[in-house]
Design goal:
The protein is 9% helix and 45% strand. By secondary structure, it is mainly beta. A 6-stranded antiparallel β-sheet has the order 3-4-5-6-7-8, with no helix packed on it. A two-stranded antiparallel ribbon has the order 1-2. The longest helix is centred in the middle third of the chain and has 7 residues, at 60-66.
């Protein structure tokens, strides 16, 4: 499947790579801004060509709350991941698992996710910030 990005350039979607975020957020189709940067991260899942794709997202119900007349915040409320096999399709890749929740129904900052390699040199620490708190979720 081919689509055009906001600049009109063609882009290819990896097999099974549609629907990685909820429909209303996907349909918003706005260029990246300071409010949505650093909301995804890709980490290796071992050394066999598999990768985790972590995404901070907004469920459709939270998205609707963003546009209420008295809305004062626009938090994310979903932190989930997908698994991509980059060996599939002759190296073009394929999403083999998707939309696996890690945090749900919790207000999260839309930004502020990072990873740090574990001291063992193999594993990773993943850190995700809550909204307007000192809470850092670790995985």
């Amino acid at each position: 499947m081919q689509r055009r990005n906001t600049l009109g350039h063609l882009r290819n979607i990896i097999e099974n790579g549609d629907s990685l975020i909820p429909p209303k957020q996907y349909g918003m189709n706005t260029p990246a801004s300071g409010n949505t940067t650093q909301c995804s991260l890709i980490l290796p899942k071992g050394s066999n060509g598999l990768y985790y794709v972590f995404i901070t997202a907004v469920t459709d119900s939270m998205f609707d709350k963003w546009f209420l007349p008295n809305a004062t915040a626009t938090p994310a409320d979903l932190f989930h991941y997908h698994v991509v096999d980059m060996n599939a399709n002759g190296g073009q890749g394929k999403v083999i698992q998707k939309n696996i929740p890690l945090i749900t129904n919790t207000e999260l900052a839309r930004v502020g996710m990072m990873a740090c390699r574990h001291a063992n040199g193999y594993d990773w620490w993943l850190l995700k910030q809550g909204l307007d708190t000192n809470i850092i979720y670790t995985f």
